[in-house]
Specification:
4-stranded antiparallel beta sheet; alpha/beta; Rossmann fold; 297 residues; 6-stranded mixed beta sheet; 2 domains
């Protein structure tokens, strides 16, 4: 299911959370990257039909989400994993998924339970399928969340900050699972973790301050950091250089800083080849230097 937004705006009273967002998602795995508060969750909730837009156009799979009929049509083909999914701690994963399946209209008991068992195996929870979820780790709970999003074989899957708070092993497991789902679906991954997008998505959009500030290939985002990435060696006890310090490593000759700055942070700073993270930080610096959009009421 392709996604098209034009001039999409969302206001909460006098606060404008989305400022004329133009976005085109063709299908497959697509990343939505930005800091907390950038407007990603508001956009996700509009695409999931939870929030109506305040202005502009938004179409998902040809359906107009500014109408009630359009939102209902998309929700029937949607799998949604919000940032905070409320689980019932006294239920087992099998019981919870069976319950969610009823709400999704999977009325055939045998077919529904077969699908539940298949999804439990897909997310590697078969061995704990009958255990109460109150003792589950964050990663296990997140896997239950993606399983419920997959009930009914949706054409569009929207996941909001799915790996936040997970340990490295669970994060890798979850990224691998998401990547495997995108073959014949659209999977929209919203996150503030650059590595999650780098490891799963070929294309992405970056948001800042309720605006889309970049769309294109993930690899091309690296180029934004060209001419703005530096290496600085500071002696013991010296203050850190100006700019955004991406990394700092202590060595025998002092602290080696990697810095993102539009100008050399120190006279002896050496230019460095940027990484994806450097490009993202440089893009955020440019976005912060732009005049703030007018907040409408």
């Amino acid at each position: 299911m392709d996604i098209q937004t034009t001039g999409l705006t969302r206001r909460f009273g006098r606060i404008t959370a989305l400022h004329s967002v133009d976005l085109a998602v063709p299908g497959g795995m697509y990343g939505l990257l930005g800091a907390n508060g950038a407007g990603k969750t508001t956009l996700m909730r509009i695409l999931a039909g939870v929030l109506p837009p305040s202005g502009g156009q938004v179409r998902v799979g040809g359906h107009d989400l500014t109408t009630g009929a359009g939102r209902l049509a998309v929700q029937r083909r949607l799998g949604y994993l919000p940032q905070d999914l409320g689980l019932y701690p006294d239920l087992s994963p099998r019981e919870f998924l069976d319950y969610v399946g009823l709400f999704k209209g999977l009325d055939d008991t045998g077919a529904r339970r077969r699908q539940v068992d298949e999804l439990l195996e897909l997310v590697a929870l078969t061995e704990v399928a009958g255990r109460r979820m109150k003792g589950f780790s964050g990663g296990m709970r997140r896997r239950v969340g993606i399983a419920q999003a997959l009930l009914g074989d949706p054409a569009l899957i929207v996941v909001d900050e799915p790996t936040a708070g997970l340990d490295p092993e669970e994060r890798v497991r979850f990224r691998t699972l998401l990547s495997g789902l995108a073959g014949h679906r659209t999977v929209l991954l919203s996150t503030h973790i650059v590595e999650d997008v780098a490891q799963t998505c070929q294309q992405a959009a970056v948001m800042a301050g309720g605006r889309v500030v970049y769309t294109g290939l993930v690899t091309d985002l690296v180029r934004v950091g060209e001419g703005a990435t530096w290496e600085v060696v500071a002696g013991v006890g010296a203050p850190p250089p100006a700019g955004v310090v991406v990394s700092a490593v202590s060595r025998s000759d002092g602290t080696h800083y990697r810095v993102v700055s539009p100008t050399p942070p120190t006279p002896d700073a050496l230019p460095a080849a940027p990484s994806l993270e450097d490009g993202y930080v440089a893009l955020m610096q440019r976005a912060a230097a732009q005049p703030a959009p007018t907040v409408g009421g």
